[in-house]
Amino acid sequence: MQVARSRGFTLIEAIVVIAVLGIVSVSFGIFILPAIKAQQDVARRAELVDAAEGALRRMARDVRIAVPNSVRLTNTISGGSGFALEMIPTVDGARYCTAGTADCDIAGANVLTINAADTIFDVLGCFRDTAFLAASGGNAYRMVVDNSDTSIYTATGAAAVLTPVVTVSLTLFPGTSATTPACGQASLTANSFNRHRVTLGVAHTFPTGSPRQRVFVVQDAVVPVTYICNQTAGTLIRYAGYKNGLAYSTAAQPTDPVAAPLNAATGREVTRNVTACSATGSETVGSTGTIEGSAVLTINLTLAQSGETVQLMKQVQLDNTQ
Predict the structure, then answer these.
(1) What is the pLDDT of residues 6-18, one digit of tens each?
(2) Cβ–Cβ < 8 Å for 48, 40
């Protein structure tokens, strides 16, 4: 007769297993957990860098296409510390025709009259913004010529560098037949090229001309634009479309989101987790804090989250000139 053997673990076997498990646990804690934490830290830093770079790129884009001398900066804001950056971005631009300019003295050309009411003028070339061209028959746009004294924010009436909201009609000149080529291609008139002709629905007097014959197109519903970086609240917010009558703002730059005119705008968060931010301009117009059209804007932005901190700096050349 066979005797049934009892089955189980001996005390020594149990101790060996416990010891092995302890060694494995210690090894996991020493080698595996730090690697996992390092990967999480890298991912968090990458997210912060991406957020900071995206915010700086967004601001840089608006600054580069802004109406000359419309970028206003102050490092004093309401409700915290940081900076407020205001501007009037453009959607298109061109060089307008003046008397004595090559390719503008041909028969039938229309030049822009400065310091007198005018409604029709040709540009040297073509507008390119497809949204502007498609909606040019509507009342959504204004035009700016010379803003050398920053009066776009304050001047009205005869002193206004900015047209009222106008109906803009764009046609080709000097195309004279049904086979008119596209804008910019060789025209049907010798020694000239097809260009856009602007017809304003309301006559306007531009008080001064642009040194480079520049005319800028502004979309009325989305300007001005203000970025407020509030390191106390930890946010960078973009406000747009708070125009105030013909002039786009008051003489004073808005810095308080809960007061006029910013309280009439919809603020969109650009980024959060801001712990420090500052901005400086290399040149200003007078003492108004308005950055000159040829200046360099330097922006510093620091973001932090869960013990990770990134600091990025971006320099933006103001590309638009008078």
Answers:
(1) 566 677 777 877 8
(2) no
C-beta separation of 65 from 42 below 8 A: no
Q: Are 55 and 83 in contact (CB under 8 A)?
A: no
Report the sign of the C-alpha dihedral through residues 119, 122, 127, 131, in that order.
positive
Burial of 187 (0-12, 13-18, 19+ CB in 10 A): buried
Q: Which of 272, 275, 269, 285 is nearest to 318 (CA)?
A: 285
Q: Which residues of 198-236 are buried (b: 16+ CB within 10 A; e: fewer)?
A: bebeeebebbbbbeebbbbbbbbeebbbbbbbbbebbbb
pTM for the predicted model, two decimal places: 0.84
| Whole-number pLDDT of residue 15 | 80
Pick from 143, 118, 123: nearest CA to 132: 143
Distances (CA, A) of 121 to 189, 198, 238, 241: 18, 5, 35, 28
